Amino acid sequence: MSRPWRLSGDHVRLAVRLTPNGGQNAIDGIEPDGEGGMFLKARVTAVPEKGKANKALIALVAKSLGIGKSLVSLAAGDTSRKKILRIDGDPEDLINKLETLFG
């Protein structure tokens, strides 16, 4: 089974489908993206304006992984529901955390 994360050199890339105004900040699991890949399904209470939902997503992912927010950044999808996050740190440790939490 494919995963929404992949090793990319010195970091991990994470595919996410974000639902803003989602009622609560939560990660709802992994789902197929309809194109043969997978994404992590997340929702945040923040509205999708001026980057508020993106910031809330970064905070949610960082908290879930137990890392600082500065280690998570938006690599693609600034205004899209489908996003790619870049997570810096020890890639093997990050993959292990992701597998434990969502795998």
What's the helix count?
2
N-to-C terminal Cα separation, in Å? 10 Å
Give the quaternary arrangement of the chains: single chain
- How many E-type strands? 6
Uncertain segments: none
Radius of gyration: 12 Å
Structural class: alpha+beta
**Proportion of strand residues:** 35-45%
Q: What does this 3D model show about the protein?
A:
The chain is of the alpha+beta class. Helix content is 25%, strand content 37%. The chain has 2 helices and 6 strands, in the order ββββαββα. Strands 1, 2, 3, 4, 5 and 6 form a 6-stranded mixed sheet that branches. A hairpin with a 2-residue loop joins strand 1 and strand 2 (11-19). The model has no long low-confidence stretch (mean pLDDT 94).
Keywords:
103 residues, globular, 25% helix, six-stranded mixed beta sheet, 6 strands
Which helices and strands, and how do they pair?
Elements: E1 5-8, E2 11-19, E3 26-32, E4 38-43, H1 52-65, E5 72-76, E6 82-88, H2 91-102
Parallel strand pairs: 2-4
Antiparallel strand pairs: 1-2, 2-6, 3-4, 5-6
What's this, in brief?
With 103 residues, this protein is an alpha+beta fold.
